[in-house]
Write a structure and sequence with these properties.
alpha/beta; His_kinase_dom; Response regulator; about 700 residues; five-stranded antiparallel β-sheet; PAS; Globin-like; HATPase_dom; Beta-Lactamase; about 50% helix; phosphoprotein
Amino acid sequence: MAIPFLQDTPLPVDPVAALLQLLEEEEERVVRLWAKRIRAETYELDIPGRNLRAPLRGMMDELVRLLRDRGTDALRLWPEVVRSHGARRYDQRFDSEDLAREFKALEEVLLYVYAKRNGLLEPEVATFIVELVGEAHASAQASFARVLKTEEVRFREAAVMESVLHHVEVGILLAEMDGTVSFATPPVSRLIGVPMRAVVGSRSQTSLSAVLTQVNARHPGGEPFKVSDMPFMRALREHGPVRGVMMVVERPGGGEASLEMSATPVWEEGGELAGVIQTFTDRTEAANKTKALVSAHGELRRLQGRLLQRTRTQALGQLASGAAHALNNFLNVLRLRITLLRREFKPEHLDALDKTVGQVGELVARLQEFNVQRTEEQISDVQVDATVREALELARAELEQREHPVSVELHLGDPGAVRADPGFFRELVVNLLLAERERLGDVGGRVRVETRTESDGWVLLRVEDHATPYGTEDMTRMFDPLNRDAGAPQLSLLLAVARNQVQRWGGELSVENLSGGHGAAFVVRLPLARSSEEAEQAAAGRGPTAGPRRFQQTRRVLVVDDDPDNARMMAEVLSEEGYDVKVAHSGDVALKMWEERRYDAALLDAVMPDLSGWEVARELRKRSPQALLAIVTGMDVRGQNRSNLALVDAVFRKPIDVGALDDFLGQSESPPSGSGGGSSTAGASHAPA
């Protein structure tokens, strides 16, 4: 009688035979899964032309041969076979931990494939696999350690340098003339996020391209970062240094890093290019702080825009100019701080912030042109339709900011040009649009703007709405500057100034109710321009002003500004450019300093409490006719007379362009005879007037 429990007792399994059968039938699968695990564990790259599986397949072939020919002796012999693998991994710049992960991955793959294939994993087979792989790992580690110790003894100085380079925060990469990467310190791998051992010793176009793809490398603007964008590649092409190239990478463990890279060519004694050294520096913290600065500056720009886009009249021009002056001082300090930050870190992503500052400065300049209290008009041919479009863009934010916005329909008939001042005419249209906004109130509505030419040679501009018509008394007092009815206390002043302006141009401004009692309209009538002779005569009357009068190189610069932050930052930036800079916080102090020591150039703030920059320039011109003098201001200078403008060689608008300022101070010769050097009023540069 059979014993039941004996029927369920498993027969003993020969682990050698079981493992041999597995490898004979599944060797390729084992090698493939093993290589895949290695890549996942050590971030190893499978690069075209570099077969990661070849050494693994060789070790599996030897194991199959030993299991077949020597049986259980394979447990002793195979570890000796794989001993050389440790030395090979050392040459490939693997770490000891990477070698341990590699054999751990082999153990997991063998156990997994055996269990998957047979449906179960016998204890005898599992024990044999663990013991076999463990002995092989110990043998490979011994070889790895022996080579490492030999190398450390033989090249102790190199090992010490390697240790130092391992712990510094800057990664260093060496590239040969053909683009081959011959050396990379461990920090390069840490900063990029994947090991660089696959790149060392290979052509960068292939291996480095795989690295950049794996970490999703890109420029700060979002464009993919290519191998050709690497500073060392550019330095090899251009035979010169490349500084401050920024690259954003995604770390395998999550998160992004901003890296700054620079490259310096290495020259042989004969003057031949030997290669390039490239450095990697982590600028992630600086990039995050810059983003916060960009956000804060954007909020400032929006606040400034809302302030300066509010309606201004001639009577309020001085208030607008003063506000612009204060804001421009703040913007100037911000730009100079950005300049210093760029020189410390050289990150290209700050260029966008600097560009935004320039755009804000241009906005300030446009609004100053719009609002400035001019001493005299600049009459020229003004295209009516183009001016209406510009005015609508300036007023759009005010028209649309309420819960119920005001929409504008344009019906422009291309009437041509009128003889007027361009800034005042644009201001006129904006004021009429904002008057309609006040009239429509919180309910909003639609405004229709029409332009056309009338048969009698006049240009008609109508701005109409569909609100309640004006009463007779309202229309009588509409243009009374002392009318201070609740709701729009500045409206009557605005319209009174506008009507006076239109009358000086030979036209008229009126208000009328639409027929049928469906709204009202402002009507502007101006003579059609018939020629541009006045503008040509005015242009012909502008004679050239005197150019720079000096012949020596500028080194000593006096900065005169009553604002301490502006003066200090200007001096700091110019000092880094190599100039010998002194600061004076008033005109009187500046004149005393000039007497004690003559300077090559002076940068003068236009508005100061004791002496204006123009007055200081007049005194300095008497004392040093050849000195370079420039006005630095946030104000509009077109109201200055020609005698004042002739005193200085340039006018720089705040926020100032440091590059243009350096170009100006770096002049070493006077302009050729007959050239029109002299004052300029560019927002961020200087040019002949």
